[in-house]
Design brief:
- The longest helix is centred in the C-terminal third of the chain and has 13 residues, at 198-210.
- The chain has helices at residues 28-39, 74-84, 139-147, 198-210, 218-225, and strands at 3-11, 47-49, 58-68, 89-97, 107-117, 131-132, 151-154, 170-181, 184-191, 240-247.
- By secondary structure, the chain is α+β, with helices and mostly antiparallel strands.
- Strands 1, 2, 3, 4, 5, 6, 7, 8, 9 and 10 form a ten-stranded mixed beta sheet that branches.
- It has two domains: 3-97, Alpha-Beta Plaits, CATH 3.30.70; 108-247, Alpha-Beta Plaits, CATH 3.30.70.660.
Length: 250
């Protein structure tokens, strides 16, 4: 009889070529399935994540599930997986879930955070974990701009033109905020779902506002235009964290 196991995992994305399994590349997906292969003595077990993250992107609370014929106490699952996984990937919590649960399709909310290090001088210890932006920023203007993103909108302008996802680009953001603490600026985005590169494109637009290149209200105008070409480059991946994934209580 098969059981279904849900895991909440964290990883430092620096040395991964993203989440999704790729031939001859080190990925989060690949490392997880390698560990499960050992536990299952050569039987391939497929994992299903809440979504993928790109190369260099980190996760504090990614969620996966897999099916297994093994009946193992949950603490032992956690210990066995963490013994086999590399040091930059860790299983925080394990629980048994119902047969109907799906890590991707049952998501009701995701939270992403993006960190900007707003200093002229380089901090070598932050280079893999925040985007260094050397120019002065008007945080109040960026906070005002964030407020225009909250609610339900078509986010075509703020999604990658390379995205392969078909269908509606309408998403709901429950929170879009920006706070400065010392030299660090933290953006928090909570929503029903996110389009490819959406957070990184939004942050780029916010930095334009912070430099006075755009006004806060431009953020709302750009939503209506539904045209990715109106915005600049996507900011780098290392400042981005998948912070958490929420599901209906099971």
């Amino acid at each position: 009889m098969m059981g279904k196991i849900k895991c909440v995992i964290s990883y430092d994305g620096t040395n991964f070529s993203g989440f999704q399994i790729q031939p001859k590349k080190r990925t989060v997906h690949g490392e997880l399935e390698k560990a499960l292969l050992k536990i299952h003595k050569g039987l391939h077990v497929r994992i299903h994540p809440s979504g993928r993250t790109d190369s260099g992107v980190h996760a504090k609370g990614q969620t996966i599930h897999f099916e297994t014929p093994f009946q193992i106490p949950l603490d032992n699952w956690k210990r066995a997986l963490n013994t086999l996984l590399p040091d930059d990937l860790y299983v925080n919590a394990v629980e048994e879930v119902s047969e109907s649960f799906h890590a991707r399709y049952d998501v009701i909310e995701k939270e992403y955070r993006y960190y900007v290090w707003n200093e002229k001088e380089t901090d070598v210890f932050k280079r893999n974990y925040a985007y260094q932006f050397r120019y002065p920023l008007d945080v109040t203007a960026m906070q005002q701009a964030c407020s225009y993103l909250e609610g339900t909108h078509d986010f075509t302008t703020y999604s990658s033109a390379k995205a392969t996802t078909k269908g509606s680009k309408v998403r709901t953001l429950y929170q879009a905020t920006c706070e400065k603490n010392g030299s660090e600026i933290e953006f928090i985005f909570r929503g029903s779902g996110f389009l490819y590169n959406m957070v990184r494109i939004i942050v780029g637009a916010m930095l334009d506002v912070g430099q006075g290149r755009r006004s806060p209200v431009d953020i709302a105008v750009l939503l209506d235009k539904k045209d990715r070409r109106l915005l600049g480059e996507t900011v780098p991946p290392q400042g981005l964290y998948l912070w958490g994934v929420k599901y209906e209580s099971m």
